[in-house]
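Pilot study result, target chain (663 residues):
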Amino acid sequence: MAGYVCVPVSCKEFWRTLWAFRSTLVLILTPILLCPLPVLVPDPAALCAYAILIMAVYWITEVIPLAVTALLPMVLFPTLGVLDMKTVCANYLKDTNMLFVGGLIVATAVEKWNLHKRIALRVLLSVGSRPVWLMFGFMTTTAFLSMWMSNTATTAMMIPIAHAVLVELLDKKRQYRRLSMRNSGRFQRKGDNGVYVDGQLEQRDVETQADLDEIELGDAIDGEVKPEKEEETKAASLIDLTDKSMPPEDRSLSKGVTLCVAYAANIGGTATLTGTGPNLVISGQVETLYGTDAVIDFGSWFIYAFPGMLVCLFLAWVWLQLQYLDLWSSIKRWFRLCCSGRCSQCCRENCLCLCCKDKEKSKRVDPVESVIRKQYEALGPMSWAEGAVLCHFIILALLWLTRDPKFAPGWVIAFRKGYVTDSTAGVFISVLLFCFPAYPPNFGCLKARNDHSIPRPKEALLDWHTVNTKLPWNVVILLGGGFALAEACKESGLSAWLGDRFVGLAVIPPVAMVIVITVIIALFTEITSNTSTASIFLPILGQLGTSLGIHPFYFMIPATVACSFAFMLPVATPPNAIVFAYGTLSILDMAKCGFFMNILCLIVVNISINTIGVALFDLHTFPSWAAEGSAATTAAMTTPINCSEYLLHLNGTASPFNVMTTL
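Predicted structure:
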């Protein structure tokens, strides 16, 4: 047997090898480098901190899959003496996990029968083919689907549709451009660097030439414009969206439409409790940290988050137009038309109402709409299964929204208090999907006249193989790991220890603290999973509020929403990674546009928590369940702290009181 020989390597080769094995080094060295913490401080809180730090490093670096890291509490907490195994395992199938499972099973049925594609294409047919409204249609559809389905699945479905529409859009724009150049004596050629450049042109009345981004595609074929040769038709149809030699305005349009899908998926998920992982994390951790009296259910979250989602979506739409559709030039042109007395023309060109659309349809055939309609018609008429899934979906949404709407008694009052939750409705509808037939019954009086088939049981809307294949079980485990982490923080006393350290922050206004928290969370989630970020930070932020006598929701809710605002990097969220993989965007494109998008959304989050959040969750009052939920503060808590008095104290307009004494 040949022996091993040590071969000398250069310094460069050594560092290259070291970099190649960086994941292995992080995996092995992290527990070793952190081991002085439990050795020097053999306290349950320190042991818990040791386990959490290991999980945090693994989650950030992703040296092993996120779900595998989420399984570590079942190893670390029992062996370190933080929690027993039964307590740890109970966190992996909590009520919130079942809410997530129920919602995703319904979403799986929607995907199986292509109901989501029908909804998307129907919306796109309604908004027309102009770039600005196409972007609006893609964003509203993606955001709506992302409220109920996985952000990843929504993006993966919408991006191919968006690119198919873009190819047709740019094809007709190119034909229009060629026609305009022939009529005006203007020509376009490729320069030495492969980029399209303009040649000589005759100056015409520029007032009659609208910007190409403001012209509907139907204009390109008003005069039955046809390419002179068949080869031109084929060449025009083969548009590569990743081609760097495309005209700048075409490249900008491709980038804008591609980015709008990712932005809408990230933003839309914040509106519902089941829309994205961090929302479920806060729901479960609030119950873990503070008991069943502290509840964030589907209805209350929807009332709080839905308006903010709409505002963020609108701002994203406007911002993308400014970046990629030259909105300023359009505004100047509209203003010029209005000043010259042609307001009716301005209204006609930019109106989306059905009456104007019908008039335009009578004058021209829209090729982009033809592409969308062809895909829509390929789905055929709505089937029995699609209608059944849609009915189940609507019933589930109504059950969630009306269970306990706060402003009126909900249907939950018909049952024993505290026994029925949102997950009950989710699992109930999920079970029905496995029972309801996917095709009309054909027995007895239900049999159609022209149906001569033998009566037999029909296939159900869902089967377990489909669910088992499509359901993201890794997210269920990831949520469970976060809940186990929160339970360990509470039981080990780590939360109380952190609370004692946070008391010194009482001199900082809570409003400023929320701004700092959301900025830190938004930056942190750019490099790690949003669910992992929520699992790490929310227990700490909850204890921060308890220690300062501030409603814990005041810090936890905006932090949760901020976890979903990752727009700058491809690795930040799966939607970002999917759109980046199509090749139309560079990292610089995403970073430049996403940075300002982050700022806009964080402004909305901070305004929402100080307006809707304060009114809905009564954030000006420190709740009794927060005091009872903290073992460190229960014995010393004398009276609940009124946050209004606390803020007045900070401003020096109220009688002084000692926060430490009160706590």
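One observation from the pilot: Confidence is low (pLDDT under 50) at residues 192-237, 357-363, 631-651, 653-663. A full batch analysis is planned for the follow-on phase.
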